[in-house]
Amino acid sequence: MPVPEGPAPEGGDALVVLSRVDKHFGSLHVLRAVDLTVHRGEVVVVIGPSGSGKSTLCRAINRLETIDGGEIRFDGRPLPAEGRELARLRADVGMVFQSFDLFAHKTVLDNVTLGQIKVRGKDRKSAGARARELLGRVGVAAQADKYPAQLSGGQQQRVAIARALAMDPKVMLFDEPTSALDPEMINEVLEVMRHLARDGMTMVVVTHEMGFARSAAHQVVFMADGRIVEQAAPEDFFGNPRSDRARDFLSKILHH
């Protein structure tokens, strides 16, 4: 059953705005004049072939990658370059990667409380209560006192989502969050993401999971060769792609 209800938010509620964004890695032109607007409460799913610039786009939104040209604005302001403002931006922009990046020597509970205490300035008790609430929300409350190595990949990724949510971010970025998981664990992570989408979390998701794109996205963004080739609602994109590149991509990926 599709998640998005009604049209995506429009107009003045733009939370993330990329304008003519350019990025090179040496001679490789990985982002080419990319324009993208993500509205508050909107789920934008970015798909496309490997090497098309999807992950770089995602990482540029919280300045894990710097850009060479154009501008990225977050919540009405240009991205800060460094220092305290950048740390604040990173707290407001939750990020979930392919690898779970949990602290191996800390318990699951400590992984989810650490940022709340260090960055948000919460006391240990309220941070712990919030962490347990979020671990329950992503279905791993029983794992709170274990260490990451004692969890399955799907459980670790759900802890990583809880850790990002604990910062009360304004937007969540997901960079191929299921690509390192065994097939049977993929759906448990996607289900958590679907719930977040239903709850109105603003999300930018880079993924190969076309079922998730169909069911959870307000907008599907198709990238190839560093450009946004096509951008449409899921029913339009999957039902009637306009570009040859998108048609070719979908024929390969959907007929496997």
Written account of the structure:
The protein is α/β, with parallel strands linked by helices. It has one domain (14-254): Rossmann fold (3-Layer(aba) Sandwich), CATH 3.40.50. The protein contains nine helices and ten strands. The protein has helices spanning 54-60, 83-92, 108-118, 124-137, 153-165, 183-198, 210-216, 234-239, 244-254; strands at residues 14-25, 28-39, 43-47, 69-74, 77-78, 93-96, 171-175, 203-206, 219-224, 227-232. The strands form two sheets. Strands 6-7-8-3-9-10 form a six-stranded mixed beta sheet, with helices on both faces. Strands 2-1-4-5 form a four-stranded antiparallel beta sheet, covered by helices on one side. A hairpin with a 2-residue loop joins strand 9 (219-224) and strand 10. It starts with 13 loop residues before the first strand and ends with a helix. Mean pLDDT is 90; it is low at 1-11.
Mean pLDDT level: 90
Spans of at least 5 consecutive residues whose pLDDT stays below 50 are 1-11
Kindly estimate the percentage of residues that lie in beta strands according to DSSP. Answer: 15-25%
CATH class: Alpha Beta
Q: What is the 3D shape?
A: globular
Provide tags for this entry.
single chain; 256 residues; alpha/beta; Rossmann fold; six-stranded mixed beta sheet; four-stranded antiparallel beta sheet; 37% helix; globular; disordered N terminus; ATP-binding; ATP binding; MetN_ABC_transporter-like; ATPase-coupled polar amino acid-transporter activity; cell membrane
What are the SSEs and their pairings?
Blueprint: E1 14-25, E2 28-39, E3 43-47, H1 54-60, E4 69-74, E5 77-78, H2 83-92, E6 93-96, H3 108-118, H4 124-137, H5 153-165, E7 171-175, H6 183-198, E8 203-206, H7 210-216, E9 219-224, E10 227-232, H8 234-239, H9 244-254
Parallel strand pairs: 3-8, 3-9, 6-7, 7-8
Antiparallel strand pairs: 1-2, 1-4, 4-5, 9-10
Helix pairs in contact: 3-4, 3-5, 4-5, 5-6
